[in-house]
Design a protein that fits this description.
By secondary structure, the protein is α/β, with parallel strands linked by helices. It has seven helices and 19 strands. The protein folds into two domains: about 180 residues, FAD/NAD(P)-binding domain (3-Layer(bba) Sandwich); about 120 residues, FAD/NAD(P)-binding domain. It is elongated and about 70 Å long.
Length: about 325
Amino acid sequence: MENNSSERVHCLIIGSGPAGYTAAVYAARANLKPVLYQGLQPGGQLTITTEVENYPGYPDGVQGPEMMVHFEKQAARMGADIRYGIATKVDFSKQPYKVWIDETKLIEADSVIISTGASAKWLGLESEQRLNGYGVSACAVCDGFFFRGKEVAITGAGDTAAEEALYLAKLCTTVHMFVRRNEMRASKVMQERVQQTPNIKIYWNTEPIEVMGDGKVSAVRVQNNKTNEIKTVPISGFFVAIGHQPNSDIFKGWIDMDETGYIKTIPGTAKTNLEGIFAAGDVQDKIYRQAVTAAGSGCMAALDAERYLGAHFPHQ
């Protein structure tokens, strides 16, 4: 599995969303000679969204994939070494830190910035994937605006689902909310807000079985778990809010995380529990999860790495 060739890198960045690319821009400008591996989904979650209208500096909006091309080009122009490849294993027991790419190539890094992001959890319906980006979304804050004045549905029962339902209720005529059990997991105050919002219609014991539409969402078929009754609800947008999964599995056992796998950083910094290893973006942020906050934390990680490397490797 391992070959004997290894490469020494001053600053290794793992992941290529707004956090990773922004870290690369700052690290390259600081002459840290960053090497960035793009990972499984080059460009990250923004490559599966269409229009982005809430990123500052794009007055007319921008397509998510196009914006990530801009980020990548800027990092490359600053001198970042951007490569295809997936980090598959790490050994953070001592420095230099070891990271294996595609199971074969060994990188020994003086510092590591982890910006591997998170992935939305999906229901696993074929129709949901087919219409993803055509009315199916996992981010109401990103995409709710496009359904202003229309009927939409959301599935989920936690605080995120409740928050997103309330957000959509301000924009949409009716929000159909499907809850799989006969109760919600959301905090009491969030549940009360949802139940007191007149244009949110809650369906208990109900789960979606098919998103319908040809080229764009037109309806959703749902089934009642208790009665097995199936009904079709006409909608223009279908939002999945059953949580996110941070892409942090390979760091388990090395880096401190919360119970769901989000990497813990020292508040106000990008520092992890290991000196010289930093985390930025959605892999450590379960609260905001926006492109602009990810980019900001990527900047923090690069500046933290620059200070660390300046103190520990002054002559590199």
